[in-house]
Amino acid sequence: MGIISTILGVFGFGIGIGIGVVIGYFLFIYSQPTDVKDPEMRPLLEKDSKSLEQLLPEIPFWIKNPDYERMDWLNKFIEYMWPSLDKAICKMVKSIAGPIIAEQIPKYKVDSVDFETLTLGCLPPTFQGSTNRTDVADRRYQSKAHIDVIAVLPRCHFLDPLARMAMTRMKVYNTEEKELIMELGLKWAANPNILVAAKAFGLRATVQVVDLQVFACPRITLKPLVPTFPCFANIHVSLMEKPHVDFGVKLLGADAMSIPGVYRLVQELIKDQVANMYLWPKRLEVQIMDPSKAMKKPVGILNVKVVKAMKLKKKDLLGASDPYVKLRLRDDNLPSKKTTVKHKNLNPEWNEEFTFVIKDPETQVLELDVYDWEQVGTHDKMGLNIVELKNLTPEEPKTLTLDLLKNLNPNDAQNEKSRGQMVVEVNYKPFKDHQMPTNVEDADDAVQKAPEGTPDGGGLLVIIVHEAQDLEGKNHTNPSVRLLFRGEERKTKVVKKNRDPRWAEEFQFTLDEPPTNDRVHVEVISTSKRMGLLHPKETLGYVDIYLSDVVSNKRINERYHLIDSKNGRLQIEMQWRTAG
User: Fold this and answer.
1) For the domain 447-577, what is the CATH code?
2) Which of 185, 246, 557, 577 pairs as cysteine with 130 (C-beta 3.0–4.6 A)?
3) What is the separation of C-alpha 370 from the centre of its chain, rounded to a whole number of angstroms?
4) Residue whose C-alpha is closest to residue 239's, from 201, 192, 272
5) pLDDT tens profile 365-374
6) 379-409: pLDDT as tens digits
7) Is residue 261 predicted with pLDDT exceeding 80?
8) Distance between CA atoms of 89 and 107, rounded to whole angstroms?
9) In the chain, where does the domain assigned CATH 2.60.40.150 lie?
10) Where are the membrane-spanning stretches (predicted)?
11) Nearest residue to 71 via CA among 189, 170, 209
12) CA distances (Å), 33 to each of 27, 37, 40, 145, in order?
């Protein structure tokens, strides 16, 4: 019977294989249609309206929404830079962790702890959209399993091109402050090799970290923005939700994560610890530049009194001059300050006082130019001179008699000719330590105190005209801003042929009392000097700003919609500085 059973078994096995091959052929090969063709592709312009409507949900957010930006460039940049970034990051980790480890190991009687191998692998992190992971999944894959797959695959290769394109975006927030806020998704499936060896009691133990996966939604803030490369001083990073961190750990060559309960315990522990440190509103701050070099903050006040001028040269045909003095700090974007005009006077006396905010007394220079006022045409320069602030003694008033020069070239023979003299009084008053901002952000956001000499109960009203957008002129667009406050008028410079001008000019008003019930009239004007124009000046819009909020809040920075303008907007910052 045994032989017969064996023969029948072999015979049945052969028959089964034959039948299976035949059935498989008919099911998987023979039944496949032979007339399969590639789908017809047509240009987008040839599609009908119904087909286009079906494609609208698939359009990437960076096309539909101006708040989202493409990030292909960023991922490509990181991919090219990753070999160098890997070495730099590992070097920084060793330099930071080394002293900490050296300080802690004596407590545990460990001889040494060293990084035998430290590399983050050859796969760089990928930045993707932070809020669109589920909406792409909901549109294409309704099951929870597919959503989970999207959450763990870093590059989502199984998605069609439209889905991948939609995910490669980040959201950018626009604010009126000097900062840039970005929200994005970080997905990193890495192949690191981190091997740490510890020696104690003559024994050696190793811990190895492999197969790292990180998924997080960080908010990155670059602030403050400064006019020095790389154009921001600090990086602030906050996590908008708890991150997912997964990795493998080999202890003495064995997989420690395979121990029951260890994997989930480590996962929850890492999430909680990272969330406690960096989950919004908590943040990680990384200083990129020295605050003092990134943004020069005010360190003092320079009081200047223009007393008089003597023996000025005649500039007018009738044998006289109409002199006035223009004062400005070099390397400063603030507008110049002027004295009044003394008509037909070669020995004018002004006795007018001015105040300047000093940021770097070692390099800043006060320039004084004497001009002859002309009713028509350009004003003639009568002479100039400078005062180097580094030569002034703090808190010590000084009276200077300056010879007027043609220019500042010491080798120019024309400077030997007499052009008159000017008498000025200067006094540099540095801020006290408790008055100075402690860091670059405080210098940018905090409201400074009014300078000494401000009336009791009063203060200093500071108006900074930053920029305008979408200005529209009927005949020309050469905008400038005119400020009218308590009958006093101030103007910015003219920006020619620009619908989105930037001024960044500051104006100061010293007041005896808080302007609680006052308002500032701000008007944007376009002017043209072309001969024959019927409309040499026109108004591009205006706004009246009440100052009660400025007094109560000390500082406001808003973008105002201009009245009598279709889309024009003007950004103005106002501060109320008091002596107390």
Assistant:
1) 2.60.40.150
2) 185
3) 40
4) 272
5) 899 898 888 7
6) 888 888 888 888 888 888 899 888 888 887 7
7) no
8) 28
9) 296-434, 447-577
10) 7-30
11) 170
12) 12, 10, 18, 31
CA 292 centroid distance within chain:
17
Q: Count of CB atoms within 10 A of residue 408's CB?
A: 12
The percentage of residues in the chain with a pLDDT greater than 90, rounded to a whole number, is 4
Does the pLDDT value for residue 137 go beyond 70? no
- The more confident residue out of 36 and 274 is 274
d(CA 84, CA 58): 37
pLDDT tops 80 at residue 504:
yes
- CA dist 97 and 66 (Å) reads 42
pLDDT tens-place string over residues 184-194: 778 888 888 88
For residues 168 and 128, the answer to whether their CB atoms sit within 8 Å is yes
C-alpha distances out from residue 358 to 298, 404, 439, 487, Å: 6, 24, 17, 28
E-only strand ranges, 288-322: 300-310
> How far is the CA of 577 from the CAs of 243, 296, 299, in angstroms?
44, 19, 16
Strands 300-310 and 349-358: antiparallel
Residue 232 corresponds to which tokens in the numbers above?
């921001």
pLDDT tens, position by position, 533-551: 566 788 899 999 998 888 8
pLDDT tens per residue across span 320-362: 788 898 888 887 766 778 888 888 888 888 888 888 888 888 8
417 vs 439: CA distance, rounded Å: 49
Please, which pLDDT band fits residue 24 given cuts at 50, 70 and 90?
Answer: low
Considering the segment(s) 296-434 as one domain, its CATH architecture is Sandwich (2.60)
**Which value, in Å, is the radius of gyration of the alpha carbons in the chain?**
36
- Burial state string for 346-376 with b = 16 or more CB within 10 A and e = fewer than 16: bebebebebbbbbbbbeebebebbbbbbeee
**Whole-number Å distance between alpha carbons of 324 and 381:** 10
Q: How far is CA 541 from CA 483, 525, 531, 566, in A?
A: 13, 8, 24, 9
